Amino acid sequence: MTNTAAEINRLRQVYSKEILDESMVNSNPILQFDLWMKEALEADVPEPHAMNISTVSKDGKPSSRIVLLRDFSDNGFVFYSNYNSKKGNDINENNFGAINFFWPQLERQIRIEGVLEKVDSKISDNYFASRPHDSQLGAWASNQSQVLKNREELEEKFAALKKKFSGVKVPRPEHWGGYILKPNSIEFWQGRPSRIHDRIRYYSVNKKWKTERLSP
């Protein structure tokens, strides 16, 4: 075991800030998510909208990365990406996905599982139009997940695009847009002492939400 591994092995965190009981949660998991997100914002959790999105390829190989939540509703949870990226290819081949939020400041975690679909093109157009100009150019410049010769190749492409679109509206690339994860399971996790954590899971039955408590 290396010194660093030994240090990690000794790390311990006592979770004791809150409790989570069935009597406390909203019957609608989206409203419960909204409540917890508001509390994360009020607590100044760094980037509370940052979430891990996991996808699986057609041959069953999982892959995960951090993206940013940009919208949510009863329909699901929306983020934006390059459709030709690793995640985009995974979704084309296998549209099941999972999201994970972790807010250590609040000792909370939210796990969401469901089906991934592209959002309507008008939704993607509207969001793209709201992005800063250079972020719009970045969507054009990056062949996400593809191999680059070096950093200069990317910077030269970005500079050329900046010149091309100087002072003009940047259209949304066809290869870039939104995905929505439509949930069938949403779990709220609250850290508790002695690793006896609270876990309340919502699951969908005939388009209606039911809840159950899970063992930690």
Query: Please, what is the oligomeric state?
Result: single chain
Work out the helicity level: 25-40%
User: What overall form do the CA principal axes indicate?
Assistant: globular
Distance between the termini: 28 Å
Q: With helices defined by DSSP (H or I, 4 residues minimum), what is the helix count?
A: 6
Question: What kind of sheet is the major sheet?
Answer: 9 strands, antiparallel
Based on helices, strands and strand pairing, what is the structural class? alpha+beta
> How much of the polypeptide forms β-strand, as a percent range?
25-35%
Number of strands: 9
Level-1 CATH class name: Mainly Beta
CATH superfamily: Electron Transport, Fmn-binding Protein, Chain A
Regions with little confidence, pLDDT below 50 for 5+ residues:
none
CATH architecture: Roll
H/E series: HHEEEEHEEHHHEEE
Number of domains: 1
Indicate the radius of gyration in whole angstroms: 20 Å
Mean pLDDT: 96
Textual characterization of the structure:
It is a single chain. This protein has helices at residues 3-10, 29-42, 86-93, 121-130, 133-141, 151-164, and strands at 50-56, 62-68, 71-73, 76-82, 96-103, 108-118, 176-190, 198-205, 208-213. The protein has one domain (15-130, 175-213): Electron Transport, Fmn-binding Protein, Chain A (Pnp Oxidase, Chain A, Roll). The protein is of the alpha+beta class and 216 residues long. α5 packs across α6 (151-164).
